[in-house]
Amino acid sequence: SGSSVQGELHLTAVDGGVLIVGEMSGLPPAAELGFHVHAFGDCSAPDASSAGAHLNPGQSAHGGPATPVRHLGDLPNLASDLSGNAKVETTLTGATLRDGGPNDLVAKAFVVHERRDDHVSQPAGDAGARIACGVVR
Question: N or C: which end of the chain has fewer CB within 10 A?
Answer without folding.
Answer: C
